[in-house]
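[job 4471] stage=fold_predict status=RUNNING
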Amino acid sequence: MTQRPYAVFALSAENVPLVFPPPVLARLRETVDIDAALVAEDFTDPRVKDALARAEILVTGWGGPLLDPAALDAVPRLRAVLHAAGSVKGIVTPEVWRRGIAVSSAAAANALPVAEYTLAMILLSGKDLFAVRDRLRADRDAFNGWGLLPGIGNLGRRVGVIGASRIGRRVIELLRPFDLVPALTDPYADEETAAALGVPLLPLDELLRTSDVVTLHAPATPETRQLIGARELALMPDGAVLINTARGSLLDHDALVAELRTGRLSAILDVTDPEPLPAGSPLYDLPNAVLTPHRAGSQGNETARLGLVVAEEAARLAAGSPLAHAVDPAALAREA
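[job 4471] inference complete, writing structure tokens
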């Protein structure tokens, strides 16, 4: 690879200035030759043909094209794909690996705001804030700000983390300053991993039975589809809260609706299946369900963190150093 390789943006054009604001774009241009006004959203567009023929690096992201054999044929000099987003599953095909093209992802950076969102929801749900908000809206004259409410609070609350993913591990780290008691379940984690995180490693059923909050951070795979169904929900103790910021397919939504209608549990869902939910879904109206529209991941100024990861990876490539966030194709099936 040349000292200052030629790179092309291959993502939604509207996202380029968000993910690469001027300071981050300048950092990227220190080590690669790239034109922010030239974005290859469609590799068959004749306006990008010459640029793709020269490109050694593709900077991909949300809205980027699928890198199938036909797309890759348009980029014959391609050596690396630097993904300014989380999972590469939506753009990378096996042909990328067969051609020996290196792939890097900013998934570690995208994990940070998801973990922060999760922490916020754990703490707010412990104070029953969402139900209190609704009661205050419904009966503004009945508010008593000095009343002490039994059955709420975050002291000693047990938090069950499903999945030792980047986000799951970060959630455990963020919980350390608080008087919460986290535990972990993950079929691919061992006792050494759990010990390093400072949490017990439990079977799924035991974690569900013993947790006041259960937060999902597992990948979407055939094995994890509807991982949490009617049987699993029934194991959770009365008053428990289920948080999902991972993938909607991990959860049986029909079973969840049935359980929520009893009033026994609460749920905070940033992802659903399908996404978005149909307008008639009961989850919009159930008082013990909180829905947010896939907002836990990088938003606003947080997206610049993703671009910075790409800029740093490009610098490593230009220097001939290994990528810090290389994607392992063997492990991709077990990742989000």
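[job 4471] summary: DSSP finds 13 helices and ten strands in the chain.
[job 4471] exit 0
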